[in-house]
Amino acid sequence: MLKTIAAAMLVSAAAISTAYAQDGGKVTVVTSFSKDVTDPFKASFEAANPGFTLDVQNKSTSSGVKYLDEIKANNQVDLFWASAPDAFDSLKGKSLLAKFAPSVTGLPEKVGSYPVNDPDGFYFGFAASGYGIMWNDRYLEANNLPKPAEWSDLTKPEFHDHVAIAAPSRSGTTHLTIETVLQGEGWDKGWGTLKGIGGNLQQVTERSFGVPDAVNSGQAGIGIVIDFFAFSAQAGGFPVSFVYPSVTTVVPANIGIVANAPNQKGAETFVNYLLSEKGQSVLLEPSIRRLPINPALYANAPEGFPNPFKDPRFQSMITFDADVSKKRTDVVDTLFDQLISFQLDPLKGATKAIYAAEKALAAKDVAEARTLVDEARALISAMPVTADEAASPQIRDAFTGGEQKTARQAELEQQWAAFATKNYAEAQAKAEKALSLVD
Amino acid sequence: MAFVTSFPPRRVTAKPGQIAAVALIGLFLAIFLIIPAGTVIYTAFTEKGTGALTFVNFLDFFATDLFRRSFFNSVYVAGMSVVWATLIALPLAVLTTRFDFRGSMVIQTLGFVPLIMPPFVGAVAMQLLFGRNGTVNLLLNDWFGVRIPFMEGLNGVIFVQSLHYFPFILINLSTSLRNIDRSMEEAAQNLGSSGFRLFRRIVFPLSMPGYLAGASLVFVKVFDDLATPLLLNVKDMLAPQAYLRVTSVGLTDPMGYVISVILIIVSIFAMWLSAVAMRGKDYSTVQRGGGGLMRRSLSRGESIVAYGVVGFILLLVLSPHIGLLLLSFATVWSYSPLPDDFTMVHYARVFDESSVYIKNTLIYASLAGLIDVVIGGAIAYLVLRTKVVGRRWLDWAATSALAIPGVVLGIGYLRTFYGVTLPDGTPLATLWVMVVLALAIRRLPYALRACYAALQQVSESLEEAAENLGATKQRTIRRIVLPLMTGGLLAGFVTSFSTAAVELSATLMLIQSNSDAPIAYGIYVFMQSPAGRGPGAALGVIAVIMVALCTLLSHYVIERRQKAIGSAK
Known about the structure:
The complex is a heterodimer. By secondary structure, chain A is an alpha/beta fold. Helices cover 50% and strands 15% of the residues of chain A. In chain A, helix 7 crosses helix 15. The radius of gyration of chain A is 24 Å and the shape is globular. Chain B has helices at residues 16-41, 56-63, 65-98, 104-110, 121-130, 135-144, 153-179, 182-190, 195-206, 208-224, 227-231, 238-246, 254-278, 300-317, 319-329, 345-385, 391-400, 406-417, 432-456, 460-468, 473-500, 507-510, 519-526, 533-568. Chain B is mainly α. Chain B has one domain (12-568): MetI-like fold, CATH 1.10.3720. Chain B is globular and about 65 Å long. The longest helix of chain B is centred in the middle third of the chain and has 41 residues, at 345-385. Chain B contains 24 helices and no strands. The chains are: A alpha/beta, B mainly alpha. The interface between A and B is large, with 90 and 73 residues.
């Protein structure tokens, strides 16, 4: 029985592959996008380009990068298709992408202040995504919470234990959000905001999708997400809302041709299709809802759909410096993990104690207690490294194993974690003492 | 007493056939487990950047607070999960095997279903029921103004893990209980023992092989499991730390692989410990009449209590599946005790595609289960019945598969087999057979423990009798050992099969196209978007029902066999 099935499968597989060989061929794409995104594209691409078949291999962004690296000696994949620009940058650095000049012209060079395409022509933006704050309407109403509008709102006491974020070390898109805040507010103030949000976090998820999932189901009230997660959830009927804070950035989601692609022509056809008006219009489908890179498409967009090329709020968004970001990527991610993700309970404990002391102080001011609370706040926002150190070759090489390193990554991690543990414990003690002084 | 007499030394010389078996199994494990995993884990012993050999990474491991804390958390969670899993499994196993209990077979099957938890969907369903704003807590908050943190912190992990993995204890303990010689119990009763004392002093000790097999599996599985802690966002445990470091984009961090090595060492140590606990004790029984223990009928009052207990436990352990079922029919389910409305569209959406997933899953999982039972049975026999050199190493190598993160094995397969091509240029790693082998390796420890327990309960004197009567070794194995082990072998097959059917982490690396994909992959591609939740849950329900039906079928076979033996007497 099994043998029969197995034989039947082999025969059918052989039949299918010969069928493919007769025309434009099978275009194999490795992607992190869900079926809701890939299915409409597959249908539309195959209809527009008879003879081609799109074969979708779904992998998470990080496994996709690892996969391409492992199979490079005998590559069978034509395209890599995902959101996070850093994954493409990593692939480009490993010479796993091929150069290409798409035939579609007349597309804008920048979206917001971020360049749409790789300057060297290794990967191309096909959709724009902005980062912002998403919330569950029912959750906010049931807990009597106001609607947040800015990153700094998330540091307020009323949102304690209601916020979710994906770990920037796990989610390239969240990494960009963090980096945007750091670039927009500066290293020290930016980390102050991030740790303020950190003290209010309910969870740090290990997948980007974990955050919208928690907000959709109402497990968390507020999430820091990319816009399309919120738009597609709204289209699916979930009671959620979304806002772009004023300090944010729009960055492109990308596609690139894999080096030594078995079906180079097919790969090129798909990239050209994706950038064409036909391909771009698929982005507006309710289950996808990403911002097209072709400005003409916004004429057909649903009511209230943001337009990054026209809306003034996107024009005022900060300039994102990709070089600064690239130099300190590992350091920023590791700092976030060691100071926030892995120290969540101590950080939340200290934050809660500060809120309690401040509440008491608001009713009755005691100068000595006020000083203690300020000291506690300073202890929480203190950083073990400065912006210059973070971008220094000594620290960068600790992460890459380069020659200028002065410590191993594991040693740095331990130092930073110990710094945080000590500071958060002292902050909590000071805040508790302040509270006892007021009472 | 019978079970404390030690093994007499015998069969010092190994037969050529046994040596060949060790060599063959060793080769299989080397090619499909040790070499692929080794090519990846090797990084643990190298210096970053230069690649020079070093042990400094291990020093770093012990010098880091986070890793030390993770280590103790993992040990604590695994230990407590064994305790809770025992409390769940024991009543179910005893009531269904020791008493005339209507619906024993259904309970045995339902009690097994928690193991069949498809990735992602189960997690979402659990959160919707027990999460901070899940059904239970929303209702509690409405009625009493309190919330119970079921799903938070280490206790949340223990809660979910015990619900998920107690079937390991249930299935192995039940098999053991069925195999106990009735004469032992009768002898104890003749000597005046009864009730709980009889259970504590005779029945439970005699079922030790099964219990320990299950308990050690629960411990090691929980210790090495990364999905549940990550779903609950608990990161200071070892397995999640390894996973987070192995799968991050960009640079290779040796610490992830160092943790993998530590996981492997602890897992093997735990298995060794359970072997030591059994050493010098003989649990085998000679008599094979009567189909195991005497079954007692329950009085009316006892029945009510018993059904109450069983009902409550089943409701608890099946709650993730109830949540899954609700989710698969739900339109929108957000911050409310129940979904807003119900619909069939999710099933309609997955209907067309599900047949290819189901076919692939059945082929992959049953082939993997078959390989596991054959190899697991062979290793168990070699370890318990022969003195061949290297037999324990086979056991430990196979067990270490539990501790190797699926993604490490997946990468290892690509690294080892992608360069090897078929004549037409297709890489070996892209064939669906490789998925089967990866699944078989990942699930081999389950089948191995079950075979081990089953063989420990077969008395060697039966084999000696057969050999004295002139039967060859092969014939003895075929006619005596295998039939007596059937229950355990089936238990092993069922465990391997059903858990392989929902495995994803290793296969995600190896799946090359949708037409080769098992159902877990199908669920995965749906579960990445808000609109995919319903269809993903629908596929999950299909997966659970499919695997549960196969399990029910095999329980039916076991029951029939037991009855046949009983009536033949």
